[in-house]
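Interim report, section 4.2 (structural modelling).
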Amino acid sequence: MALTAVEKTLAAKSGRSSVQPGDVVYPDPDFIMIHDGVVMGAKRELDALGISKLAGPDKVVMVTDHDVIYGSARAAERGAFNRKAARDWGVRNFFDVGRGGHGHIFPMESGMLLPGMFYFDNDRHSTNAGAIGAFGFRMGTEISRVLATGTNWVMVPKSVRVWIRGKLRPGVHARDVGFRLATLIANGTLDADLDYRVLEYAGELDQFDLASRAALCSSPTEVRAYGVFLPPSEAILAHARAVATRPFTPVYPDIDARYEAELVLDVSTLEPQVALPGGVHNAVDVATAAGTKIDHVFLGSCGSGMYPDLETAAALLKGQRIAPHVRMFVAPGSEASTQRMAREGLLQVFIEAGAVMLPAGCGPCNDAVIGPVHSGEVSISTAANNNVGRFGAKDAQLYLGSPATVTASAIAGKITDPREMLNTRK
Amino acid sequence: MNTDFQWRLKGRCYKLGHDVPHAGGVVPNSIIAGRYFDPKDIIPHLFEETDPGFHERCKPGDIIVAGRNFGMGPKMNGYIAMQALGLGLVCESMPFLAYRAAVGCGLRVMTDCINVTEMCDTGDELEVDFRSGYFINHTRDVQREYPPVPESLLELIELGGNAGWLRQWWQSQHKEPASPQVSGARG
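Predicted structure of the assembly:
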């Protein structure tokens, strides 16, 4: 039987020749990820049940990315708790403060997460794995069962496919595609239900590098996709081979696989997008929001935290200063990116422009533990979403844009089409 | 299998409409934000914003019948209360992660029961077998068959959800020689 990418992956990891949507399987994951915000809950839950040993401590990856710089005594206490938990459980793959970065970014850069892999994660942004041709499934609080037993039940999701037609114009970014796609699905223009579906991209995908592919995974997640997948291009495979820490087998959907829905999105005429406050699915052309005065800018998150995203921003910022009334926070996706920024001069560009560098990780996008917005303020960012209160005051206005759009806006002090600045630099 | 477990519930219908969110519709948002997971803390607040005192009027075996898209938000709080009160849940659809949360709480739940809200009204005498999918409205004398709880999830619900399943699994690991294989964990 012809299989979609997720069906093929789950069949392989469950020791079956085939699966179909609705089947319940128990995949054997390549690894299990848990982040700093939920270790305490999982540890206490397992301790209360008397479960002191994990099924496979060597498969467990602990990551400190949600609250990296402890801004409170409570956060410092949690950090200490997590370190003790890692010792008690015997978890050696512990990427603590300053050691890895964003759990949904650095494993793809470092060769931990490779094409064809499957892993369990407590966090829903594990959908990022699709950027490299893998799957990460969110378990929420059920990550405790995965830690204890090594697996959990998974109902094979249905798949929806979107065909990308055409090429992006200069100044338009993969993040813009994601905002547009989420909006067209949410308003019914593209007819598909993404609840617990895997969104598989197809079509003209060679134009998207790993960072752009992570951007394409972001917004569908916010409109309830459970997985996102891009078949790895030659360039992605070359990257994977160069960094791989172990052998891997890429997965591609069968040519005659069946999808619940097939959508087409022509990106050749797409304008830079801005998601208006309230959700990624509120996207409009940047011209509609241009001129809105801003107070706060954030560059980073699982959707826009890779080195090319930082390069895009640095190209605009070089020799410029951000507007005097704006504060701009930058959180690279990995410690490796921060180090490379230092080597290649990007760090200097950001600092001289007046931006504030944050440690690699989630930045303000996690519950405003750092760099939040105040009541009545206006923010434009590359955060995962702009739901009410995502990073601070509930009555703040949170806009989203691509790395280029938020950086151009930081310089101008108001929401700005990045092409205006790209054109003047030529 | 737990042979004492009641898969067939007989009780009164409590009907809800479409698009009832977990926060506000099932329990007040303060219960979710306050991270209350003890049934005794949640029960007084079940359906509090739409029907104060529900928890005093409902009886074990009563069945909540909801429309499409029930329980938006992958939260467990309301299902913990429903399970502790001995209620069942039958709905036309629910977001998958809401369904997963309900199963994880050990709630007897059936979803994808198309048009089930047209088959009953609040107060009707219902009988639902969650293991076979058999639905009877004795008041109206109608019978339907809906998709039952999947075979592979029966044990999880019988054991009271995730915590009960894990407790049982851990005890079984210590009774028998421990199996080193991950696949042995599927219970």
